[in-house]
Write a structure and sequence with these properties.
Shape: globular
Order of helices and strands: EHHEHHEHEEEEEHH
Largest sheet: 4 strands, antiparallel
Number of strands: 8
Strand content: 15-25%
CATH class: Alpha Beta
CATH architecture: Roll
Low-confidence stretches: none
Radius of gyration: 16 Å
Helix content: 25-40%
Number of helices: 7
CATH topology: C8orf32 fold
Length: about 200
């Protein structure tokens, strides 16, 4: 799939915004700790990815009713759905000078009906002339997402037998409908009723 930047300038994918608040002290502290354990942009990107994937629990898996949307809150609570975890990973990458975009998948449910809008990121590492999608959702039985530049290792790859959709647009900021749902939800139960199922 050919990915398309929503904003032509790559610098837009380094910017901070209310959700990707990479200037927040907690984000900066986390970046400093990860940088101290890595040697280059690639190893840093892998470490940031694994940190978010493995130490921030997906709230569906944990049963946590809280809804986080700001990267710093995701890191503080170690809790969030896929969109929130993507905001946190984008913040950690951007704070280290690595362009990161938000992207989405429309996943069908077991009956083939529209199910959920899934959030992930794309990263553009130095020396590469392309974006590579990464899925920090968090692994569980049946889900084995991995950081990969060779072939995508997403939580839910969209295959030919699926009614799911891979959206090709790379967003510099969270999609407004997704962000609005996250910001307005009092808890995860309400979020499931208001989160869009498609873009």
């Amino acid at each position: 799939m050919e990915l398309t930047q929503q904003v032509p300038e790559v610098s837009a994918y380094l910017a901070a915004d209310p959700a990707i608040d990479h200037e927040h002290p907690l984000v900066r502290q986390t970046v400093a700790r990860l940088r101290a354990e890595t040697v280059d942009a690639y190893s840093y990107a892998v470490a940031a990815y694994e940190f978010v994937r493995d130490t921030v629990v997906h709230s569906v898996d944990s049963g946590d009713p809280r809804v986080t949307w700001r990267a710093s809150d995701v890191l503080a609570t170690r809790n969030g759905i896929c969109h929130s975890k993507s905001h946190a990973l984008a913040a950690l990458l951007r704070a280290a000078g690595i362009p990161a975009a938000l992207c989405y998948q429309g996943l069908d449910d077991d009956t083939g009906a529209p199910g959920v809008l899934h959030g992930l990121i794309a990263v553009r590492l130095p020396g590469r002339d392309r974006w590579d999608r990464q899925d920090p959702r968090g692994n569980k039985p049946g889900v084995d997402a991995q950081f990969s530049l060779d072939e995508e290792r997403l939580a839910w790859p969209i295959g030919p037998e699926s009614n799911g959709v891979d959206y090709a647009v790379l967003y510099a900021a969270p999609h407004p409908a997704v962000l609005r749902a996250l910001q307005c939800a009092e808890d995860r139960a309400q979020l499931w009723r208001t989160l869009p199922t498609a873009l």
